[in-house]
Design brief:
about 120 residues
């Protein structure tokens, strides 16, 4: 059974930093496409950043230069370091892991709230 457990969300003032983490069981991050998505109230869920099994990294344009995604293979944990936070970054952040080639599976964490005040 696959479980993704996120932690590290919270409340921060604009310009501040937060790191969210996602630890997996039942699946190996290193051989999959793993990423962070977010969903703000009234908006669709969107990709924030992802790492592929071949270590290619993609960022959503608005977070480039402010957010850093990383993966600790030994701990099977995914991180998103967020700095220069803006009120528009306020959302529930979700960890995701999916089959990178055939699309056979797609798993989500429960989400962690990040709130940025102005």
């Amino acid at each position: 059974q696959v479980q993704l457990v996120e932690s590290g969300g919270g409340f921060v003032q604009a310009g501040g930093s937060l790191r969210v983490s996602c630890t997996a069981s039942g699946i190996t991050f290193r051989v999959n496409r793993v990423g962070w998505y977010r969903q703000a109230p009234g908006k669709q869920r969107e990709l924030v950043a992802e790492i592929n099994y071949d270590d290619r990294i993609n960022y959503e344009n608005s977070v480039k230069g402010r957010f850093t995604i990383s993966r600790d293979n030994g701990k099977n944990t995914l991180y998103l370091q967020m700095s220069g936070l803006k009120p528009e970054d306020t959302a529930v952040y979700y960890c995701n892991v999916q089959d990178p080639v055939f699309g056979r599976y797609n798993y989500w964490g429960q989400g962690t709230q990040v709130t940025v005040s102005s």
